[in-house]
Fold:
Amino acid sequence: MTDFILRRLFQGFLVVFGVTTVVFVITRLAGDPVSLMLPLSASDEQRAAFAAQIGLDQPIWVQFLRFAGDVALLDFGDSLWQRRPAMEVVFERLPNTALLIAAGLGTAVVLSIPLGAIAALRPGGLADRLTTSISLLGLAMPQFWLGLMAIMIFSVTLKWLPTSGIGTPAHLVLPALTLAMTPLARFTMMVRAAMIDEMNTQYVKTARAKGLGLGRILRVHTLRNIMVPFLSISGWELITTLSGYTVVVETVFGWPGLGLTAVQAIQRGDLFLVQAIVFSIALMIVCIGILMDVLSKMIDPRIELN
Amino acid sequence: MTFRVLAMSAGLAALFMSASGGSVSAQAITIAIGSEPSTLDPQLRDDGGERQVNDNIYEALMARTPEGELIEGLAAAAPEQIDETTWQFTLREGVTFHNGAPFNADAVVASVERVIDPENNSEQMAYFGTIAGAEKVDDMTVIILTSGPDPILPSRMYWMKMIDPGYAAEGDLASAPVGTGPYMFESWDRGTELELAAYPDYWGGEPEIDEVTYRFVPEPGTRLSGLMAGEFDVITNLLPEFTSTVPKFAAVPGLETSVFVLGTDNEVTQDPKVREALNLAIDREAMVQALFMGYASIAKGTHVNPAAFGFNDDLDYYDYDPERARALIEEADAVGAPLVVVGESGRWLKDREQIEAVAAYWAETGLDVTTDIQEFSQYLDSLMGDGPRPDAIFIANSNELLDADRETSFIYHMDGAAASNSDAEMAEMIDEARVETDEDARQALYDEILKRAHDRNYTVPLFNLQDIYGMSERMEWQPRTDAKLIISEMSVSE
Structure:
């Protein structure tokens, strides 16, 4: 196990290094931060001075060596937009994103298991058809649209919840539910399919034949068996959420997390902040991957980690 | 499933209603702006979000009326010009910073020196490049020195915020600013909101609104929803099509004017007949109605801002005369000739829509028009780089200092960063106007420059854009030409 974790950590290190390098190259190809940052009326001398100040006047390989050296010390330089260390911005915004993801994915996990199970009890029944069609709708609706609709209904018309911002639990409700919709639909479909399979296995039939109650069969036997596939799909959803959904949801709801900050950093040509955010997210994704493998092994000892 | 979600959010909402609904005093307002200040240091950045906050905390020696007229601010009167490069300001008496420190000549000297200090590498040097230094004459008198004759110096001093040197040395200007303005900094919860409170000892009298909360909401649709839900009192950058949706709104001619700069040395556009045809081919009135719902004014023969010093009142609007445009293209033997229109998308209000509409009008003249919408930094390179000049390039040009030098130096002067002509004679006149300190003589020069550029069709001016703000029912406010959000000019009716 330790051997496995060490090997995965090494692979993860290579992945993070690769991603960071790619981002370094892309941010430097994607345009000139100096002209984005300075007013249109700035003179050529001012542009040159600014480029020199942030090191962009150097050849790209010099920039890369400096960059690699700094990254080794977790120093991503000062954000051009906020003029303070990029990592400080990341650490300030990360808890907001973590809270949003925990609330959103937590809701999805908690709701999907009973929903999927109910649907699986009578495949083709009313509950199943209802759950399946609404899940498909959930998968098909773009989160951007869903978020704006939720604001229109619950904030503008009903005035139950604030439209945007952060601070009270009420501010969390709409963004978390919007974020939860797609994973919830996917989890529910997955739980349903796995449960239907399990319910048709010999061991369930045997258990029922010997008079075991349905509730006990679900709790003790089938749900345990679907934990491993459920865990791996949750891992994937977590990664997708972290690297995609949060960007959309945070933008719609003005939620000051990493996703919104990434959008703003890109718009402002703040390449140092973009690098810091991408590095942090890549690192988190690698860690989530390792954690998922280890958890699966703990749940189902038959899994070979190699 | 949806039922459960709905029921759950309803339940949660009821649960948190008490938590979110605080007491709202009649004198507290909330303003939603699109971007958070990058810093609250008033002298480092060229940042709209920073200005929207700091314009209320800090003041400058000069100020402007809501209509754009330059008046005294922290100076007691308009500056006295001692010689070509020396301007003397007498300061207003009895002004104090929020920390109690007096505002005096030392503060002005320190402010000027800090912003022009190369160490600080301030982005605002784009506005202050001509300033050489400041000297104290006595406690309430200061002179500002320029590196050459600079008639725009008073306008520049309207842009330079005055700081307290003691606080600049020891305090935290970047996150807890201290100025002389009508509002004091209260708190800043990064990413979320920022609060200001009225300064009771303000020299101009305590403002009417006591507390201001700024919220940072980047998505325009969400800002609009927040206004509709009653969370915000003022939102910025309301789209013209939503003016009928919001409880209240106000529009004001803004700083930006949209224009196409024509390449006067390019194969097709070097022919004056072609350039004239390009100006005559556009139905600007139809565009104002269709794109801006009427909230834009047609540029009157030039892209210089109508509120700017140097604007030529005598110029005519370009006519809409498609037949004449077609005839001119035929006369110029340019039917089927290629014309490339360069632009960008998403930076300025309705930029892409304007570019595409104009390209369609131009195609009707018989030219073979292609539009090239570029990514913004690539576009900046087309606009200001050393490469070949585009046949026509779009820009919504802003004029913060409200002086015609901005547009003429940037777009008309053959060496200007965004210029596409090689008119040496006009460049000479622009150079002359830049250093002419006699106002009438300077106005006469601009009249001549703008007339020449108009007659030769160096640019295709489109619209002076209006800034539109959405407001709650209770807000009373007439927005300003210079786009500053001055809260002491707002009030609430209740």
Summary: Chain B has 15 helices and 19 strands. The radius of gyration of chain B is 25 Å. Chain B has three domains: 1-57+181-247+472-494, 59-171, 252-466. The first helix of chain B runs from residue 2 to 20.
